[in-house]
Amino acid sequence: MSSTTALRTLLRTPASLRLLLLQTPRSTYHSYDHAEQPVYREAERTILSSALAHVPIHGFTQEALTLGAKDAGYLDISSNLFPKGTFDLVKYHLVSQRLGLKDRIQFPDENFGVGRKVRNLILERLRANVDTGIVTRWQEALAIMSLAENIPASLRELGALADEMWFLAGDTAVDASWYTKRASLSGIYAAAEIYQTTDQSTEYRDTEQFLDRRLEELRTVGGAVSGTLGWAGFQAGAMVNLLRSKGVMI
Amino acid sequence: MSLRTTHSILSGPSLPLKSRLTPLAFQLQSRNRNGTTRTLASATPTPQPDPQPASPPLQSLTNAQKKYLESALRVNHAGELAATLIYTSQIPPIVKAHPHLRPLMKHMYDQEAGHFKTFNHLLAKHRIRPTAMYPIWYAASTLLGWGTGVMGREAAMACTEAVETEIGDHYNSQVKELLRWDDEAKARGETLGEDLQALIKDVRRIRDEELDHLDHAVGEDAKMARPYEVLNGVIRAGCRGAIWVTERV
Questions:
Q1: Which of B9, B93, B129 lies nearest to residue A28, judging by beta carbons?
Q2: Are A35 and B60 a contacting pair at CB < 8 A?
Q3: Is the model's pLDDT at B46 over the cut of 80?
Q4: Could you read off the pLDDT of A156-179 as tens digits, one per residue?
Q5: Using a CB-CB distance cutoff of 8 angstroms, which residues of chain B are in contact with residue A244?
Q6: Is B128 left (phi over 0), alpha (psi -120 to 50) or beta?
C-alpha cells in the first residue's frame, strides 16, 4: 500500500478507533499461568464475523465487509478499520478457525498415534471450511492470498496452523525436525485445501483420499531420508571406532 | 466526509472536544461507556482478580517479557545441546588417555544431559521454536569437543572453562532479570505465577552446576593448556557469537 493511501486510511478513521490500526507483533511464548491476549478487538471481531456470514452469497468482497459492519450496528465507513480490505476478511476466517480447532476436536483414545491425530486435525480443519459455508467461495480467498502483498502474511498464517496442529497432536520434538515437520504439514494442508475447492464428491470423500495419498507419500519419503541418514551416521561412527582400535589417536 | 474529518482533526484542541468527534467515533465511545467491552470468553486481556483473597493476583506478561523469555529459553536449549555434544565427543579420547577422568567426565555429561532434557521439555511446553541453526551448532560443537579432546587433557579442560564461563554469565544475567521481574511484581502486590517461579529455581540450579564444572576444569589444570590465551579467547568469542545468533534465529 502506498504511503498516501495509508495516510488517508489513518485520517479517515475516527480518532477513538485509530489505535486499532496498529498491529502489534505477537511473540510465541505460550504461558499457562497468564491469559492470552485476544487477536481481534471487540469491534473488529463483531464486524468481521458478521461479514463472514455474507461470504457465501457475496463472496470475499468489500460488499460483504460493508454488510457485516451494518449488521453489527456500525456505520458502513467502519470497513476503514481494515486497511487490507478483503484480505482481512480472509485472514479472520483463517485465524478464528485455527484458534477454534482445539475446541472442534477431542482425542478420547489415548493410544491414538501422532500421525492419526494429525490426519484427523487436517480433516477437521477442512470440515470447518464446509461448515462455515465458505468453501464454494474459497477459490476467491486463495486468489486474494496469492497477491504479492499478501503472500508473507498468508504463509505466516499457514505456518501457524501447522504449528497448532503439531501442538494439538501432542508432538514435543524440538530439534531440526521441528522445521521439516511444519514445512511438510503446511505443504500437505495447502494442497488438500486447493483440492477441496474443486471437489465434487459426496462429503468431500475425494479430498480425504487425496490427503491420505499425500500422507502416505510423506511417510515413504520421510522413512527413506531418516533411514539413509541413520545408515550414514552408523558408518561414520563405525569408521571412527575402527581407527581408534588401530591405535590412531582420534 | 473525509475532507471535513481531516480538517476537524488537524484543527486540533482549539475546538471544543465534541465537535472533533465523527459520528462513528461518538457512537463507539458511547458503546464503550455503556460497558459493552466484551472479549472472547477463552481469552481475557487483563488477569481476572483471584477468587481467593489469600493469593495475590497474577502479573500479566508484557510482550517484551514474552519476547525475552522466548529468546532466553531458545539460547539455553541450544547451549545445553552444544554442551552435551561437546562432552559426548570429548569423552572417548580423554578417557582413553587419562582413565582416572572417567567418573568426572561422566558426572559432568550426566548433568548436562539433565539440563538438556529440562529445556527440551520447557520449549515444547511453551511452544517456543528451537534455533534454526540446530544442525550447524550440532556440527560445530561436535567438532569443538573432538578437537580439544584430541589436543589433550589441558586443552579439553580449557575448553570447558571457557564455555562454562560464558554460559555462567549468560545464566546469571537471566536470573537477575527474572528476579527483577519478581521484585517488580511483588512491589505491585502481584505474583509471577508458578511457571516463572519454577523457571527461576531451575535456571539458578543449572547456573550453579555449570559453575561447578568451571571449578572442576580449573582444578584439572585448564590454565596449563599450551596456547591457553588463544584457546580461551577463541572459544569464548565463539560462544558469545553463537548466543547472539541464537537469540535472533
A1: B129
A2: yes
A3: no
A4: 999 999 999 999 998 889 998 999
A5: 92, 96
A6: beta
CA distance B83 to chain A (A): 15
Q: B182 lies in which domain range?
A: 63-248
* Nearby residues of A45 by Cβ (< 8 Å), 6 or more positions away: A38, B40
Return the pLDDT at A18: 59
Residue B216, in any domain of the structure = yes
Please answer yes or no on whether A31 and B39 come within 8 Å at the CB atom: no
Q: Structurally, how many domains does chain B consist of?
A: 1
Task: Quote the Cα angle for B124-B127-B129, to 5°.
Answer: 90
Helix (H) or strand (E) holding A117: helix A114-131
B130 contact partners, CB below 8 Å, separation of at least 6: A174, A175, A176, A178, B74, B77, B78, B123
Distance CA A206, CA B56 (A): 55
pLDDT number for residue A191: 95
Per-residue pLDDT at A43 exceeds 70 = yes
| pLDDT for the residue numbered B10 | 42
Instruction: State the complex-level ipTM.
Output: 0.78
Across the interface, which of B23, B92, B195 has its CB nearest the CB of A244? B92
Residue B110 covered by a domain: yes
Range name among A19-23, A122-126, B151-155 with the lowest pLDDT average: A19-23
Rounded CA gap, B130 and B75, in Å? Answer: 9
Which pLDDT band holds residue A13 (cuts at 50, 70, 90)?
low
Q: Which of A41, A167, A68, A162 is nearest to B44 (CA)?
A: A41
Q: Which amino acid is present at A144?
A: I
